[in-house]
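Work package 3, deliverable 3.1, input record:
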Amino acid sequence: MPRFILRFRGNGPAQEADVNRIRALPEARVIDASSPRMMLVEAPEEHLRNAISDMPGWVMSPEQTIQLPDPRQKVLHPPEDTES
Amino acid sequence: MARTTKRAVQQFVVLPTRGLKARAPNSSPAVANVLLGLHQMLAAPAAAPPPELRALAKKVRILDSIHEDGAKLVEMFPEDASALRAANPGLRIVPVVYYYTAVAPRHAVAAAVAKAKAAKAIKIQVLSSANQSPIAGATVVAFTDFANKAGAQGVTDANGQVSLALGTAKKIERLYIYAECGFWNGLRQNITLKTGAKFQLRKIDLGFTDELKFLYANVALADGTGVTVGVVDTGIANHPDLTIAGGQNTVVGEDPSDFGDNGEGHGTHVGGIIAGHGTPPAGMRGMAPGANLRSYRVFGKGAKGASNFAIAKGVDAAVQDQCDLINMSLGGGAPDEATKSAIADARAAGSLAIVAAGNDGRQPVSFPASDPLSIAVSALGRKGTYPADAVEVGDEMAPFAASDPKDFIAAFSNVGPEIAFTGPGLGIISTFPGGYAVLDGTSMACPAVTGVAARLLAAQKQILAMPRDSARSDAIAQFLLQAAKSLGLGVTFEGRGLLS
């Protein structure tokens, strides 16, 4: 199941009614709601999009991974004339 | 010799920091006035521009406007965009981007990899130059064809030995040796590699004048006092040269109070560059030893990737803890709303995010550095601030500075119109779990800028005393952007230049 971040961009903390509505969505599992303006939720994307479409101030984005920038050189191919 | 620079007009979108229209409380009257003035210039091109926009009117062509006080599509030179950003930090100035379909790459190397696995190996050894003891855990990368990244690599064992699947004796264009810590990383060029070859790495001497010390000598222990800096990274380890005021681990499923280093050492190195308070040659000193240093660990134990959820939560926590500057030496994912919103909310709460541009080798600035509300940092190198046989030699690349041709933007650094500053990022000695390490990258340039920014900001009591809102973060950004000095490298490489 994909994971999504729901973030409240309105003024003040997120409305409890909005949070409860997300919690009550079918097949939804709230993984982290410890932040006052943000939740990490595992749910079908369509369910979440439908829910936040009439919840003003909320934005949604898929969870993704950001890497440490690494400048070290790496080999991408073996040498063409390697002897066996 | 005279230098010529090719200039090209680019398209930008100019808009408020939040939303598409300049409305209180998210935008200041100054931002609204600029956007209204630009709208007047589009609606009545023959009329005289408003007095405050006369200089700008000569440099910019307005192509479209969403609303009187809304976003504008404009054409101008990147240098003029940089100047406009410095004069109006409450504006977002975003390069126009065109998206294309993503064609999957073809995988054509599988057969060659299988062949290489069966190849004869060349076994070499890596030793310390100080006492000839073997160096374990060093990554050895041998390129037979550097341009095409062809070759072999491996990690040394407890005897300092590594086998490279290269066949028998082989001409090597470049041989990189990366130690885990304690040594300068080595580079040998155009050698013939044979089994039994030994290579030595130099131990780090904390008295050595690296690029950080060269550019910023005489840092006092009190520098940075009164400024709080948050490091959103792999966590910061306990170290004799570091004092960590607090922080949070925002990785889902981990202990929130465990904001020490996750084992990578990256955040500890970054923390030292900002606020190391040792004294060479016994210790390492950063740019703002007196700053209040806080650690927000967003990378899980042993992880090289961080969730955008953890990053956004880490930025939120840094804002909650009233960090004035937030250092983000990370990047590379697709732009996402969560991270963008966290940076925007930080800006609205008086905090400024300073972000590494990325190390993809002259590629566009990566996200989140590319976000218009981020302060993006490229990596500056300087010849002579690393040993002649160190890997840093391999990152010397034009353009070289007009002010001093020993200065250059490191080959790995990403560049683009979003760059706000450049900072020392090549051959930087700093703290590491259990000792010290030399690292390169925009990851190092970013905290150098953050640390110098903290040092400069500490003297700006009026700005620090402002209410924590967007006017405060705009004032911090404006102060810093105007404090930079150009090295003559071009704005897409150095932004406004080097903080000094």
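The beta strands of chain A are 3-8, 29-35, 38-42, 58-62, 65-67.
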